[in-house]
Design goal:
- The chain has 150 residues and is of the alpha/beta class.
- It has one domain: Response regulator (Rossmann fold, 3-Layer(aba) Sandwich).
- 41% of the residues lie in helices and 15% in strands.
- The chain has a four-stranded parallel β-sheet.
- Helix 1 crosses helix 5 and helix 2 crosses helix 5.
- The radius of gyration is 14 Å and the shape is globular.
- 41% of the residues are buried.
- It binds 4-nitrophenyl phosphate.
- 4-nitrophenyl phosphate (4NP) binds next to loops.
């Protein structure tokens, strides 16, 4: 079976998309249909940084540690290297589609959720927002992966 590669994308690659990557790499352990899992951001402010401290703590508490991850920016090669590029919100989706218009590539660029639910950006908000976003991402990744195991 051809394995599918998945890239999670948000704005800074320090809150939402590393959470998606951290959840997916655990949930995919028994899925033969999934290949590479990664995450990236559309902004360059945090390149090389680990995920946000609060998101690292929330992810570890939920059983998906992400301390090892490092932020990077989306690059043109991603649109061919990945089969699915999953945006966390509508703004991320818009920018990814604009980028794909310029660079091409086989990747299916879409929202994490089929119904286009956006994952709120917890960066500027209180700690509760990190839990809320993490749980929305966890459910979204679970639903997305379910479509591969049926
Ligand atoms: P993320 O959150 O897109 O979920 O990683 C953000 C992180 C940093 C910034 C914005 C959003 N920022 O402006 O630095």
């Amino acid at each position: 079976m051809l394995k599918k590669n998945i890239l999670f994308v948000c704005l800074g690659n320090i809150c939402r998309s590393p959470a998606g990557e951290g959840i997916a790499r655990v949930l995919c352990q028994d899925l033969d249909s999934i290949g590479k899992i990664d995450s990236a951001g559309l902004g360059d402010w945090h390149i090389g940084h680990p995920p946000h401290k609060t998101m690292r703590r929330v992810a570890a508490e939920r059983g998906f540690p992400i301390d090892d991850l490092k932020a990077r920016i989306v690059v043109p090669e991603d649109f061919n290297a990945f089969d699915f590029i999953l945006a966390m919100d509508q703004n991320n989706l818009k920018h990814l589609l604009e980028m794909q218009n310029r660079v091409g590539g086989k990747a299916q660029v879409r929202m994490l959720y089929d119904d286009k639910t956006s994952v709120p950006d917890p960066y500027y908000g209180p700690e509760e927002g990190f839990y809320e976003s993490f749980d929305i991402i966890n459910r979204g990744v679970t639903l997305f992966l379910r479509s591969f195991s049926q």
